Amino acid sequence: RAVMAPARARLKRILCVIGVCFFVAPRLARGASTSLSRSEIEALRDEVKEMFTDTLESYNVHAYPADELKPMSCEGVNTFGSESGFAVTLIDALDAMVVMGNKTAFERGVRAVIDNTRFDVDAHVSLFEMNIRVLGGLLSAHLLASDEATGFGIEWYEDELLELANDLGEAFLPAFETKTGIPYGAVNLKYGVEVNETTITSTAAGGSLILEFGTLSALTGDPRFRRVAEAALEALWDHRSDIGLVGAHIDIETGQWTQAEASVGAGIDSFYEYMLKSYILFGNERHLEIFEEAYAAVEAHVRLAPWYVEAGMMTGQLISSRYDSLMSFWPGLQALYGDIETATTTHDAFFQVWKHYGFTPEGFDVRTGAAIPGQKPYPLRPELIESTYLLYKATGDVTYIACGRDFLASLRLLKTNCGYAHMADVSTQKLVDKMESFFLSETLKYLYLLFDAALDRENIVDGGPYPYLFTTEAHILPLKPGIGARDNRGRPFRTFSSITTTAAKNTAASLVRSIVRGGSMVMKNMRDDDEPDKRTPDKFCLYHSLLWQIGLKPAPERPHNLTQRLEGLTGRPDGVRTFMSTVQEFFERMKRPDHRLAVRLGLSSLVSHEEDVIVASRLAVMLERTHKYLREVSDEYFDGRMCASVQEFRLIATSDTATNDTVEIVFKTKTSYQKASACVGKALIRVLGTLMHSYAYDIGSVYDCAVSQTTYIPYTDFEDPNASGDNVETDDEEERDYDDDDDDEYEPVVTEDDVL
């Protein structure tokens, strides 16, 4: 401890400068005034309900049957590929009406969908978005409308929503006809996959289908939906790296990763969520096994406690210190899994970003403690509110209710003529005339449930006849016979009507109300008085989720085998990288005056199946243009001072391919990591644009300039030549401003002649 004391002192100084005291602020914030009276919480809950009711009415009056409402101009807009609209906002919000207890609005909404929604139309749609918003909404509403036990059964209803869901599922199936089994990201509902459809899809899009597709199979008896969803999830997992990570985007025909950053955010997030929830809803033990391996890999390689960042999926090396707002769902998923301590510390860090801006920007750099330029919008996202709700249910900590009060205060600022608008920039708080359907289906639903959880819990989720599971769009699916859920004896859950004794009914009611506190969907055995107590839980149910909350076992320190898994993956006793052991070193290296920045670019389209002389010629052009554009970018953005120079340039084969189709470039720089990476990134985007234009001309095609805007750098490694620590500079040396004009050090070490 004495040896570590100086390091801890330095860490505190660093964190307070660049992290806005993120380690200290959360606890101070949690010690702030969190006491709310019952009447105050009721007022907050009722305000959220009124926000929902008024916004839904505005949509019905000004936008229906369009997909979304423009809240500032009070107009409808179709954003899901159909000229006539699918009424996405209405379908997405049907079960939210039930959650808030409005049966009249629910019945009216179901009738409107049945009368006016059809899917046999020429519409090019996102498989992922239509699945989670529309298919999930139809299935959830069907299960509510067709079941009198919910209190929202509709007498005249005859499974019309299920028929619509089946029609939509049938329209999705052509997307799965691929070599890998991973579906296309988009499909035409009438004609199937279009001729020029891209073969690149995200991991989340291909791996977040099993809840909706599995439920559709269970309700229709058609196993095709479940099978294709399971095959897609397995195919993605089969392409994981040796260290158990998956990337963000993959080619569904070749199985090659096209974006190899691993994270728990955009492009990957719900892939993890659906593996765990598939086990909870269907009892799929294989998916729990996948989740546990994947979760351990994330904790070992992607977590820099208390944050989660972006790492190379092949190496686990840190690529970016970016926290994107979609990561905010992760503490809630950790609560479902039972990793409460980790979930609370991560939520604390995430919430400080909200406290700082009043919202969560799309991208926040945890290294600089600032929103990333160009990534400052807040599009009404629900993820942080979702995690807050689940953590309150798991812990009972009233601090999370105070967080809800802050969320609501911020959302009031987004009120417009007809609804609530996106914020274009959290710094300027300028609004944009857009309102996603998930504002009603998720954001307000979770906020309402958060406040109601502190009151009587009379909503259907906490007080209904079954425990419910949320999809990634917050649609509620019940655990009941016909869906596939099992109790700890491997038997289907019973409904209230099947439990005969008063004692058993009281036990079941208590369990239903507590079950979602930790998200556990494995209920304590509900038995008759004369039934012997013979519990034979399966091997997973003994430790899965928060079973300790419903009396099946003592509260664990961590989920089953997680500590051993992490130590096996990392060799560290705690298995997790933290600011103390990793990020501090990273920060210090960023300040040192002599660095190497390594970049790898996949160029298979430019070098595969080509003669050596053509490959050499293209690489020589690439190197020459890299020199040229580095100087141009330096002139434009860095006052003419060269930001970096090429030190190494070579064609290599990556670990997942046997052909030399990847260029590795090592740059030498004396500037900061942030400036160097920005400069190199801008230069390489121009280089790739030039190369692709030339390649397109060679094959008689045309290159779309817009594509160059999505170019990514799948691997970066910022190295210190003195990594051994023998020649670490003093603080004074680290802060020196290098203004020397000696450009000799920036002369290219490698030239195009060397390549030829």
Low-pLDDT ranges: 1-33, 485-556, 579-587, 705-747
Total number of strands: 24
Fraction in beta strands: 5-15%
Mean pLDDT: 77
Distance between the termini: 57 Å
- Biggest beta sheet attributes: 4 strands, antiparallel
Please render the helix and strand layout as text.
Elements: H1 5-18, H2 25-30, H3 38-62, E1 68-70, E2 75-77, H4 88-99, H5 103-116, E3 124-126, H6 127-145, H7 160-172, E4 186-188, E5 200-202, H8 203-207, H9 210-220, H10 224-238, E6 249-251, E7 257-259, E8 261-262, H11 269-282, H12 285-301, E9 303-305, E10 307-308, E11 310-312, E12 318-320, E13 322-324, H13 330-337, H14 340-357, E14 363-365, E15 370-371, H15 383-395, H16 399-412, E16 422-425, E17 430-432, H17 438-453, H18 460-463, E18 468-470, E19 476-478, H19 502-515, H20 562-570, E20 577-578, H21 579-591, E21 595-602, H22 604-607, H23 612-637, E22 645-652, E23 662-669, H24 673-698, E24 715-719, H25 731-734, H26 752-755
Parallel strand pairs: 9-20
Antiparallel strand pairs: 1-2, 3-4, 5-6, 6-7, 8-11, 9-10, 11-12, 13-14, 14-15, 16-17, 18-19, 21-23, 21-24, 22-23
Helix pairs in contact: 1-21, 3-17, 4-5, 4-6, 4-17, 6-7, 6-9, 7-9, 9-10, 11-12, 12-20, 13-14, 13-15, 14-15, 15-16, 15-17, 23-24
Sum up the structure in keywords.
alpha+beta, 756 residues, four-stranded antiparallel β-sheet, three-stranded antiparallel β-sheet, 11% strand, 24 strands, disordered N terminus
